[in-house]
Amino acid sequence: MTQEDATSAVPDTDALPTTSGPVSVITVGDTRYTLLGTAHVSVESADDVRQLINSGRFDAVAIELCDARHHSMNNPDAMGEQDLFQVFKQGKAGMVAASLALGAFQQRIAEQSGIQPGAEMRAAVETCQAKKLPLLLVDRDVGITLKRIYRNVPWWQRFSLFSGLLGSVLSRQTVSKEDIEKLKEGDMLEATFSEFAAQSEALYTPLIRERDRYMALRLAEDAPPGRYQNVLVVLGAGHLKGTGEHLETPLPDRPSDEIATLEATPPPSKLWKLAPWLITALVLIGFAIGFSRNTELGWQLVTEWFLINGILSAGATIAALAHPVTVIATFFAAPLTSLNPTIGAGFVAAGVELYMRKPKVRDFATLRHDVVHLKGWWKNRVSRTLLVFILATLGSAVGTWVAGFRIAGALFGSA
Questions:
Q1: In Å, what is the CA distance from 376 to each residue of 39, 85, 137, 383?
Q2: Cα 48 to the chain's mean position, in Å?
Q3: Rg for the chain (alpha carbons), in Å?
Q4: In angstroms, rounded to a whole number, what is the distance separating the alpha carbons of residues 42 and 113?
Q5: 3-state class of 133 per DSSP?
Q6: pLDDT of residue 358
Q7: Where do transmembrane segments lie in this chain (predicted)?
Q8: Are 126 and 166 in a shared domain?
Q9: Domain of residue 129, residue span
Q10: How many CB atoms lie within 10 A of CB 35?
Q11: Domain contains 119
């Protein structure tokens, strides 16, 4: 999209059918983009989408969905069909658990309100299929957005951010009216993080501002001026203003370059990557100092390291109702994996749990419904294995720090 493209906002929308949500019409070159702001928990928004698409005015429709969410919408059980071992091996257990938790939150809202969140997006997909219209998915992958949020916020805020996310989703069996109202203004991510986003620029940027820009760039790439005459863009009302402003200003000639930048996950800092190795080195040095003073002190330090790591990590798997063999294996594995940054206690615990209690077909079939209720996370073998992985990892991490401070205290506390 170049500077010479004639770009203008068109205020007159009288020719369009009346809608319950806000509408902004922007003309860029030979293409007219009609941005419809929707509420993600609203029958009226779904009706608006059907009415506009069925009006016959549009030759393409773009929606605020990514490929992953579109696939999940068409195949609700896709989450449960993943290879669990590969999920753990690739370090995706936390992301899968978060996605299940968000899905559970969404399902509870549907049960309480009688409205499935994202009904307007589903209406767009189904109506486009019926009308044989091109459907453009212009939102950024939800996994990339979560990763960029994680990388963008300061490290000391990450635990509270994501523990708050999972805690609020898992612990609250009744979704408040306030939460449902928030969903009428934004999407699932925005409603979940709204309390943080209002006070954190680091969170607001990847969650809102980057996605506004991303969707405008995807429109410039997938529906550039001239390819279609009239494009309906269905997106949450909270993105209407930002995305529209980006469309009204000249966008890059090669949108794909900036899109790639917005899809990239910032790498962790070198210090963060070196931290596990540094901790291992310090612990081993502590053992060496202990043995150099006297053998009894050295073995005392080794024993405390073994017991603290083993008990805390194994205890965490007990909280996840892991198989007894998993608990025992974790007890012996955690002290060793804590000294080997290439493998974690959670990976060992989950591997043993999968071997001892291999999920059955019905576990995958009922996964999406089981996790709606808190006890279902422990009842279903798939979600319980995720809990075993996460809790064993957390237990081992806490054990490493507690045991490390014990070693430091024994060596230097009385000096």
A1: 30, 21, 33, 8
A2: 29
A3: 26
A4: 10
A5: coil
A6: 85
A7: 274-293, 305-332, 338-356, 386-412
A8: yes
A9: 23-96+115-263
A10: 25
A11: yes
Say if strands 31-38 and 23-28 run parallel, antiparallel, or are unpaired.
Answer: antiparallel
Residue ending a domain, choose from 263, 278, 304: 263
Q: Are residues 259 and 286 in the same domain?
A: no
In a domain, 89, yes or no: yes
Say if residue 220 is in the same domain as residue 328.
no
Q: Are 304 and 406 in contact (CB under 8 A)?
A: yes
* Residue-level pLDDT at 229: 93
Residue 395 CA to residue 415 CA, distance in Å, equals 30
283 in the same domain as 199: no
Q: What is the pLDDT of residue 258?
A: 95
The predicted pLDDT at position 255 comes to 93
Give the pair of three-digit tokens for residue 321.
């109702």
pLDDT at 113: 63
* Alpha helices by DSSP H, 55-118: 67-74, 84-89, 93-113
Element (H, E) at 23: strand 23-28
Residue 298's contacts (CB-CB under 8 Å, 6 or more residues apart) are 287, 290, 291, 292
Per-residue pLDDT, 33: 95
Give the C-alpha distances (Å, rounded to integers) separating 255 from 88, 145, 217, 233, 239.
34, 19, 6, 18, 19
**Do 68 and 170 sit in the same domain of this protein?**
yes
**Helices 93-113 and 381-412, axial angle in degrees (round to 10):** 130
Q: Which two tokens stand for residue 98?
A: 């978060």
Mark whether 169 and 53 lie in a shared domain. yes
2 lies in a domain?
no
- 83 and 39 belong to one structural domain: yes
Q: Which amino acid is at 24?
A: S
Predicted confidence at residue 310, as pLDDT, reads 94
For residues 158 and 34, state if they share a domain: yes
Q: What is the rounded CA–CA span in Å between residue 81 and residue 97?
A: 14
For position 103, what pLDDT does the model report? Answer: 66
Query: Does residue 165 form part of some domain?
Result: yes
Which of 263, 289, 309 is the endpoint of a domain? 263
The arrangement of strands across the sheet holding 230-236 comes to: 7-10, 23-28, 31-38, 230-236, 60-63, 135-137
pLDDT at 415: 42
Three-state SS at 10:
strand
CA quadruple 317, 318, 319, 322: dihedral positive or negative? positive
Q: Low-confidence residues of the chain, pLDDT below 50?
A: 1-14, 171, 195-196, 415
Note the pLDDT of residue 71. 80
Ranges assigned E (strand) in 95-242: 135-137, 230-236
The pLDDT assigned to 334 comes to: 93
